[in-house]
Amino acid sequence: MRSFLCLVIVGSLVACGAAPHQPVAGQACAPIVREVPGAETALARMARAYATATTYSDRWSSVDTSWGITSRSTGSTTFVRGQRLLITDTEESPFPHENSVWSDFTHTYTRRGDLGEDQTFDDGVRLRDAFSYYWNWGLALDYLLPGLSSMRAAPPAYALATLREVKLDGHDCWLVSTARGKASDEVWLDRDTYLIRKRVTRSGSGDAFHEQVTTIEPVLDQPIDTTRVAAPDLSARPAVPRPITSPGATLGLTVARTNNAVLEVEIDSPAERAGIVRGDIVLAVNGARNLVPYDSTLLPSTKPAGTAYTLTISHDGKQRDITLRSEPTARDVAMHAAQLMQDRAAPAFDLPLANGGRATLADYRGQVLILTFLSLRCPQCMETMNPLRVFAAQYPGVNVIAIQEDATGNQNAPNFTPASDPGLATAAMYSVFPRTPHVVLIDQQGIVRYVEVGPHASRFSSAIELYATLLLERRP
């Protein structure tokens, strides 16, 4: 008689009609088959494990081969949600250096030891700024703080991924993999915790072949003493703000390399005022015939202010010569002013609300406040409203004021308030450029922590929501 070794739970035994450890006569208990999730389910569980983690730590190592050069790095992650973050990155070869990021989500100290630098910057709550200057910080941070993940490639696409069970250094894992053309991506997920233990990405071929292999030793939800995750010693060399560059001068147009067509014309730029529109063809620059592919050296993206360029433009089959002089665009000036405003006290305001009453900065003391400036002449501005309205409804500690010159209609939603700005006085205090999205994040103490200015509305939800969430979660 064949015997079975069954791993069972009480519920299964009750279903067999017996008390625990008492087999039913004449009835075999079938072995329980362990669930094998699909790739989509496995990756969703991975994302949830990181997003709900209260603490996380790891040590990782990475081997990166690109253009025939191999670099080796090691690093670590220490994360206590709402309290501490410490990332270290040590490149061992071919250019030895050490980088680190420490944050209590009010101050973020970024130390770069590469490229001959040894400087510490204070990036405030703006983790994207801290991590935009180097890429090698392991993998966990992308998922512990999902708003950062848009900066680099996500894990394999659900629809294209496959999954199989494998062993990795004695650990049972799910291997999720996908390939498209010359690119492939493989992620090893711990079968019990769904944390990443290894990732291998490959792309290109020949001299352009690139491969990165990262292995990780993760620990989830174990106590971490935050007093031992101390801020860097800044006594000898204090941290400094990130350098702010002056607005560059431009003509305000982007040209496609493939056919010399104008792809984009900036608002209130020399190109827009001259009547150049999207779809026009740039035939020549200063008399030099523009060939396909487009020669960007003929028309550099930035140039000294006042530089003259004569463009031969084809519009609806008709040619004309236009002379433009480069200048900082209004959007560039607004972006420069936005950087200067960060980490400073927010200008006080007193705004009439669309449905009666008034809103002042003091009313929102102790709460996270988002100001979004809207204009009917700016469709992209209006696109920012729905994501912010949904976000504010989900987080009671976040309030959004949607500011227009003359706010009308009933657009109220939980924590979402339309307000008027007569004469655009408040917009002027916040250096708003009225024809492009402009969103300001203010913390519980009335300090401007982040300002986003630009035409790409999709960027707002991830950055603003990330920083607002960090401010809400922060604990002393």
Textual characterization of the structure:
With 476 residues, this protein is α+β, with helices and mostly antiparallel strands. It is 17% helix and 34% strand. It folds into 4 domains: 1-33, no CATH class; 39-241, outer membrane lipoprotein receptor (LolB), chain A (Clam), CATH 2.50.20; 253-325, Roll (Pdz3 Domain); 330-473, Glutaredoxin. It has helices at residues 10-16, 39-51, 127-131, 141-144, 270-273, 330-341, 379-383, 385-394, 425-429, 458-473; strands at residues 55-66, 69-80, 84-93, 97-103, 108-112, 119-122, 162-168, 171-180, 183-190, 196-203, 210-220, 240-241, 253-255, 262-265, 281-285, 288-289, 308-315, 318-325, 350-352, 358-360, 368-373, 398-404, 416-420, 438-442, 448-453. The strands form 5 sheets. Strands 7-8-9-10-11-1-2-3-4-5-6-12 form a 12-stranded mixed beta sheet. The chain has a 5-stranded mixed beta sheet with strand order 23-22-21-24-25. It has a 4-stranded antiparallel beta sheet with strand order 16-15-17-18, with no helix packed on it. It is globular and about 70 Å long.
List keywords for this structure.
476 residues, alpha+beta, outer membrane lipoprotein receptor (LolB), chain A, Pdz3 Domain, 4 domains, twelve-stranded mixed β-sheet, 10 helices, 25 strands, globular
